[in-house]
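Assess this today:

___
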Amino acid sequence: MTRTSTDQPTPPDAGRGSFRALRVRNFRIYASANLVSLTGTWMQRIGQDWLVLQLSDDSGIALGLITALQFGPSLLLSMYGVSSPTATTSAGSCWSRRR
């Protein structure tokens, strides 16, 4: 006797949970690649700040300037809504999708 997918009981919490998106294979691949990418970005920023501190003889002003230059574009663009998670609502309301 063969069993179909409807014969198997579903767990009671099948539709709920914080990590239910991880059931999708493509999203798991995307999330793990994003984690690796972000880790590399953090390592680069720490290394750059460390290098600036060594080259500038522990100058706090130089470190502050480099940090401002690193995060400045993100801060300016996020105020407009281009790189924020709500980009479809804030920037999307300015331009029509229909051409």
Remarks:
- The helical segments are 25-55, 60-80, 87-90.
- The mean pLDDT is 80.
- Residues 20-82 form one domain.
